[in-house]
Here is the input.
Amino acid sequence: MKPKLASHGGPRVRETPLVPEEHLQARFGEEEKRALAEVIDSGHLCRVFGQRARQFERQAAEYFGVAHAVAVTSGTAAIHCALAAIGVGHGDEVITSPITDMGSVIPILALNAIPVFADVDPKTFNMTAEAVEKSITDRTKAIIPVHLAGQSCVMEPIISLAKERGLHVVEDCAQSYLSTCDGRQVGTIGDAGCFSLNDFKHITCGDGGFLISDDEELISRAALFADKGYPRTGPVRNSLILGMNYRITELQAAVAGVQLRKLASIVQRRRQFANTLNGLLSRIEGVQVPHIADGIEHSYWFYAFTVDSGRLGATAAAIAKEVTAEGVPVTFPYLGMPVYLFDSIKRTLVCGSEVSFHRGLCPNAEMVLEEMMVLPCNECMSERDARDIADAIGKVCGYHLSDGIQP
Ligand SMILES: Cc1ncc(COP(=O)(O)O)c(C=O)c1O
Here is the structure.
């Protein structure tokens, strides 16, 4: 019999919130409180005079198995520092993904460089080496692969291409802590890896970020850029390069240090939840679970899936609304448009010349954004949550697959 959808007055699959406040509160505990109290007691909240930011940088470098890390105020700041450190400037082109946050793009424009958007693989939603290759010109200086949603880009062909053409690679790892490609962690594959610690990420200190690298020169320029060009050594104050004030506070660094110790467990629990969900959703006709490219390990910052609208006779927007009415919130669209169509950049001035972007620039990205739906995914979610999600999606798809559109 055709199920009665909640959006048509039927019973909801899930009555209690899928992501209750307790899940968000559970992210922080006694350790974070203690770390914050220690900073307050130390009398130093600024990193110039305290120890916590430096400790966090050593901890992050060790954690990721690289030589150096610089902690800053956001993921955007981390990318800005990395690009500045490799010398991106006036009129250079930097290739990145059309499906990302503005944080990947703002630093390019802030350095008077031009963002160039390379289209994505319609199955993984990540930019491809083929699209990057087509976007390279004489002015290309760097590539920013964005590892979306928890899934690393396929890096080997991107790195080979970069080496062949003498380009820098700055990985945007904001959404993909601990995702791996051919056994290597994101952030350790390119010249630098940039992470966000904003409130929505795997780990957080409210707002913050950091970059990691084995390149000592890159890191020391990034550290200078993050502190107005001041080396903070010697008796005479001098600013060596033009930079910003992107100094993380001791308070943020203290929380980030505790959170980093929890990261492996957070990712492991998210993987467990997502694997359960993959198993349940893959049995539902018309649903496509996340496609994971060969050699990649996903770390599920969010869970992106698509439905076969043609087969179901309903748009992704309609399905998302109906599943949400069942008590399982589905975000659709993830982005209303590729970032190059955002008002702030679709027509912009770089070095006095107009740069504009138009619909049709990255057809795969535009198509994917009309289909991609996002489910909440966090480390506190249980097998029961996965079952409720699958029941809600199964009910809605079953409804559309059965004999017609009328209830
Ligand atoms: C892919 C990506 N890059 C960069 C950023 C920027 O990070 P932040 O918000 O810490 O500046 C984000 C944040 O949402 C992101 O998702």
Q: What stands out?
A: The mean pLDDT is 96. The longest strand covers residues 68-72.
